[in-house]
Design goal:
Rossmann fold; binds zinc ion; 2 domains; 4-stranded parallel beta sheet; alpha/beta
Length: about 300
Amino acid sequence: MKRHSLILALGLAAACLAAPASAKTLKIVASFSVLADVVHEIGGQSVEVKSLVGPNGDPHEFEPSPTDAKTLKTADLVFVSGEGLEGWMERLITASGYAGKPVVVSDGIKTRTMEEDGQMLTDPHVWNSPVNVEIWVANIEKALETADPTSAAHFKANAERYTAKLKALNVEAHRKLDDVAQSDRKILTSHDAFGYFGAEYGVTFLAPIGLSTETEASAADVAKLIDQIKAEKVKAYFFENSNDSRLVKQIAQATGAAPGGELFVESLSPADGPAPTYLKMFSHNLDLISAALAQRS
Ligand SMILES: [Zn+2]
């Protein structure tokens, strides 16, 4: 700890003495687009970030290419969210010959567990609450600082600025959702990706697919879900940008739930879409969800 502080202090001193930007550009690989965006926000001009899973891609199910292995091998730092999201990463690291250890940015987040088929599983979708992304930011800042102490002041300033935006987003989400009657805060989506959003803002999300899009819903699960949606009077449903929407559409039709639009759950849109950054993705989802819930009563 002491040594770290010393390195940090030296780094800060060096950053103050030297030109504002470090000459060094860190080559960074992030597992998926949401994380790549946040790393880029903190790293600024001192980093070059490549996302393995691209826009609209599914981070649970990903088949890395030989090019991905090459990119990984030459990276200065590799970032993953962790908690079981990127089941494919370990194989890719082994295949690539990358010598380092990936930085797990969700370390320190209080995770939720869910029962699925008799097993307790950790929910990896931490970023759907901006409160958790503050911990991502702290972990990212620390890892960047260690890799390039001369840019420590730059990373710190970026982290502070971005954290303020995350806090403002959280306040806005509470402002938009806290007044909706608790019994009305229910939504149907494709898979269980909104547990942390639900916990923070008191919204219940129902979904036919579990925590990973790699699982499948049985006919019995779907029938049970349809009954539950009718019993709980869930009136809005959403597609997800990064997976198949047929099942959720079928269920919605059987229950009379109305479409609320497309949520960006674990993947950004391309640059010209509605969710090209994490902040825009969260705002887009919040706007759609709060509009759908407002129509309830
Ligand atoms: Zn997911």
